[in-house]
TrEMBL record:
Family: Belongs to the alpha-carbonic anhydrase family.
Transmembrane segments annotated in the record for this chain: none
Names of the cofactor(s): Zn(2+)
CDD domains linked to this entry: alpha_CA_XII_XIV (cd03126)
CC per GO annotation: plasma membrane
Function: Reversible hydration of carbon dioxide.
Pfam family, one: Carb_anhydrase
The protein's name: Carbonic anhydrase
SMART domains the record matches: Carb_anhydrase
Recorded GO MF terms: carbonate dehydratase activity; zinc ion binding
The entry's keywords: Glycoprotein, Lyase, Metal-binding, Signal, Zinc
Length: 346
């Protein structure tokens, strides 16, 4: 009895110490982060407290399948290495300017590329995506911003118009090293501080996107930073892209919101906006919900795939058992009357 009590007490103590240690951590560092205080945004920027705000959480109740949502097509995304992109630290994110010769087809208008940037968490909490799926955060999120080049001459003219912008969102999670993302990340050391710039040789921007371009969430929302204009047609890809733990760490620790000569440098961390209320609106999806699961089940019929997953194997065995049983039952039913017939004749 007393042994168990002592053990529980020890566990509790460890737990309390752990909590205190975790809480003390940010204070131990001299540097603090630079949150913009998103709660105060609406005061200065009324749109931030308005309608159609982003990001949002994608959950079952608001999703609706739409068969008209075609895979997007990207024109001019494969940029030769002789061209160069400008990468900059704008004090809120790391941003790379893109050329309007890159554009998206298959949206209601033609949308030309303007810039891409990232949102991320911090080294202790790698949950920096803006959009969430079923309440789940991803490690980080890439945004590729486009403007309606059919109706407006440039992004400034387009950004406050209802049909002005189209943003592609790519969720990032930890996995193997990603050589394409490294083409941007390797320049972080040159844009550590606000207003610094670096040149990035051209590469195929489409390689930053997931392989599956046909499955995505589509809704009408806003910029996730002030002035929060409700002018964005969002495409959030269903499948995340993987970057390595080291690459994510580099993103989470490389930059400061402050200029290089600032005596009190502020780390650029947690530069994501929290999810916004989303009622009386729908998110359209280009895929059938739960298709991932169904596909797995279907493929389980083929025992060949058993080698790949024990869970799949169990499912396949179950299906084989059911089939065998049904088949035997059918045989038994067919044979039964034959056996009983001669008996009735006697
Ligand atoms: Zn963004």
């Amino acid at each position: 009895g007393s042994k168990a009590v002592r053990r529980i007490f020890t566990i509790l103590l460890i737990g309390i110490f752990y909590k205190i240690a975790m809480r003390a951590q940010p204070r131990l560092g001299l540097l603090t982060s630079c949150p913009d205080g998103e709660k105060a945004w609406p005061k200065k920027y009324p749109f931030c407290g308005g309608v159609f705000q982003s990001p949002i959480d994608f959950h079952k109740d608001i999703l609706q399948y739409d068969s008209n949502l075609l895979p997007l097509e990207f024109v001019g995304y494969n940029v030769p290495s002789t061209d160069q992109f400008t990468l900059t630290n704008n004090g809120h994110s790391v941003k790379m300017y893109l050329s309007p010769t890159m554009y998206i087809r298959n949206l209601p208008f033609e949308y030309a590329a303007s810039q891409l940037h990232l949102h991320w968490g911090n080294r202790n909490k790698s949950e920096g995506s803006e959009h969430t799926i079923g309440g789940k955060h991803f490690a980080a999120e890439l945004h590729i911003v486009h403007y309606n080049s059919e109706k407006y001459p440039d992004i400034t003219a387009a950004m406050d118009k209802a049909d002005g912008l189209a943003v592609l969102a790519i969720l990032l999670e930890i996995g193997p090293f990603n050589p394409t993302y490294e083409k941007i990340f390797r320049h972080f050391r040159n844009v550590k501080y606000k207003d610094q710039m670096a040149l990035v040789p051209g590469f195929n921007i489409q390689e930053l996107l997931p392989n599956r371009l046909d499955e995505y969430y589509r809704y009408e929302g806003s910029l996730t930073t002030p002035p929060c204009y409700p002018s964005v047609l969002w495409t959030v890809f269903r499948h995340p892209v993987k970057i390595s733990q080291e690459q994510l760490r580099a993103l989470e620790t490389a930059m400061y919101c402050t200029e290089s000569d600032d005596p009190e440098p502020l780390e650029m961390v947690d530069n994501f906006r929290h999810v916004q209320k989303f009622d009386e609106r729908l998110v359209f999806i280009s895929f059938h919900e739960g298709k991932l699961h169904d596909e797995k089940k279907k493929s389980c019929i083929y025992l060949v795939l058993c080698i790949k997953s024990p869970k799949c194997c169990r499912e396949a065995m179950k299906q084989v058992a059911v089939l065998t049983f049904t088949f035997n039952f059918f045989l038994w039913k067919r044979n039964f009357p034959k056996k009983s017939k001669p008996k009735s004749k006697n």
